[in-house]
Amino acid sequence: MPAASSHQDAPLGTSDQSAMSVSQLTAQIKGVVEESFTSVWVAGEVSNFARPQSGHCYLTLKDDKAQIRAVIWRGTASKFPFKLADGVELVCHGHLDLYAPRGSYQLVIDQAHPQGVGALELALRQLKEKLAAEGLFDPQRKRPLPRFPRRIGFVTSPTGAAIRDFLEVLRRRWAGIEVLVIPARVQGDGAAEEIAAGIRMANQLDPPLDVLVVGRGGGSLEDLWAFNEEPVVRAIAASNIPTVSAVGHEIDVSLSDLAADVRALTPSEAAERVVPSSDEVIAQLTRFGDRLHNSIRRQVTLGKQRIDSLAARRVFANPHTSVLDRARRVDELDARARRAVTSITTNNRHQLATLSGKLESLSPLAVLSRGYSVTQHAESGRVVRSSDDVAVGDRLVTRLEHGQVTSTIDSVDE
């Protein structure tokens, strides 16, 4: 009974022996998918982007109605000149692959470029934003070039037209400049590394350079791409020498132009920026000489006029008159001084006589002249004013108008 029931539950026309395993079915699907889609182009927006330490890139390509998982193996991803990120619109080439352990298919990408913009343009834009955020293009970092450099370095191809044009303009504008050419490839694989190494070597020279020029002649964006690569831009920004970027492309601005202290449109213009024109300097010196000469002449003329004006004054025209005037003034002051001294002396004499009369009237000697006398103890000189001031035997001295008398007390009568 159980066997009959199990047989009745099975679908018609099938048996356990005829059923495929999951692996077998997946293998058939894998063969069909991979053989049918060996080369496809797919456009979509990147989402769920991830790049683990293995270096492989895992992402999802999507549009508004569907999505497909995709992978870019490390060897392929390292060749992309732009940076992958969520939101980037890509046009991808690859083949479909079915991953059996999960039973899911994915697109294995071997080529990709941004949709609506070239890969180089996108890479340039991304690197520019990155370096700008680090401050490598800040105008405050820019340094002025020396007015009269003596040693100039040029990192470029020694066989290119750039160095020939530079030297030609340099010789025409200013002689006696020492130019050191630091050879480097300016195009192709490895050019960026050689240019960056040349910049670093220029900064190690002794005696040091006054100015460093980095550049080449014109070309397409691809030809000039080495001057947009990160090693070159960072080397220019790190240079201790004032640097001129002379990438011969007048329309587009390279990242080297933004990092350098001065941008020149061509190597010829770089020579014009680096050294002054000898003709212009001579003309300027001539103008300065004329201005100096005219200024000196004006100062001499003004000085002469001032001297003439001073010479016309009375003190210089007839100096003896001034001396006589001052001598007369001295005599007048002397006479006034003498009169003042005489007047003061006379007044003082009158005052002295008056005071002498007053003093004489108050003097004790004047009292003696009227018959009075003054008696004093002979030893102490104490004036005797009362009989109590003396005793029998005391010696006294009596001062008279004329002379004095010495006496001894025989008795005291109160």
Question: How would you describe what is shown here?
Answer:
By secondary structure, the protein is an alpha/beta fold. The protein has helices at residues 2-9, 22-36, 74-77, 119-133, 161-173, 191-202, 230-238, 255-259, 267-274, 278-311, 314-317, 319-362, 364-368; strands spanning 40-50, 57-62, 67-72, 89-99, 104-114, 151-156, 178-183, 211-216, 243-247, 262-263, 374-377, 395-399, 404-408. The chain has a 5-stranded mixed beta barrel. Strands 7-6-8-9-10 form a 5-stranded parallel β-sheet, sandwiched between helices. A 3-stranded antiparallel β-sheet has the order 11-12-13, with no helix packed on it. Strand 8, helix 7 and strand 9 form a beta-alpha-beta unit. Helix 6 (191-202) packs parallel to helix 7.
Defining traits:
13 strands, 414 residues, disordered N terminus, elongated, five-stranded mixed barrel, 13 helices, five-stranded parallel beta sheet, OB fold (Dihydrolipoamide Acetyltransferase, E2P), alpha/beta, Rossmann fold
Largest sheet: 5 strands, mixed, barrel
CATH topology of the domain at 146-276, which one?
A: Rossmann fold
Provide the residue-averaged pLDDT: 84
Query: Compute the gyration radius: what is it?
Result: 61 Å
- Tell me the distance between the termini: 191 Å
Number of strands: 13
Instruction: Output the structural class.
Output: alpha/beta
EC number: 3.1.11.6
Subcellular location: Cytoplasm
Subunit structure: Heterooligomer composed of large and small subunits.
Organism: Aeoliella mucimassa
